[in-house]
Input
Amino acid sequence: MSKHPVLNAQGEQISDVDLKDELFKAPVKNEVLYYTAVAQLSNQHQGTASAKKRSEVRGGGSKPWPQKGTGNARHGSIRSPLWTGGGVIFGPSPERNYKRKVPRKVKKQALKSALSAKLRDEKLLIVDNIELEEPKTKVIKNILENLKVSSKALLVIAQPDENIIKSVRNLPAIKLIIAHQLNVLDLLNSEYLVLTREALQEVEEVFAK
Output
């Protein structure tokens, strides 16, 4: 295990915490991160885009002109994909399945790689606790400034807290999730990872098995 500083809301170190090496000292495998992130993006694809095929376009039941004698090219329907207003060749279809299955071991390995990369790059911050008596965006903003979080960050808490959720909602650069929702895509999309001490314990319990 390796020691990591625990900070208070003012950004001051108050203690240390032991990080599990299997989660935070794992080899960073970029190919596994890429595979898992692409699969996550693909699984978010709703697949609702649709274009009408030739058989679905209304009209065009009769031949536009005789086969011979007009000097025009031979056509059987004005709904052919060659015509304006006709069907679409190889267009998007709601029948297409975008789902990608990621093996459990690969998903776990990718998460360990992402967490290890945050520690390696010194972008991992552990906060002792975040408590709000009422929703206050300014308070959360001040805490993040004290922690020297200067860009996109992923804030992870142990349990849903309505005051924190409402406070973070107005900060576009900050994403808030619950510990068991931790995933590779959110980690890669954020420069900083901010964990409460309780959230760290939850992450280690859930993902270090």
Summary: The helical segments are 21-24, 30-43, 104-120, 137-146, 162-168, 184-189, 197-207. The mean pLDDT is 93. The longest helix spans residues 104-120.
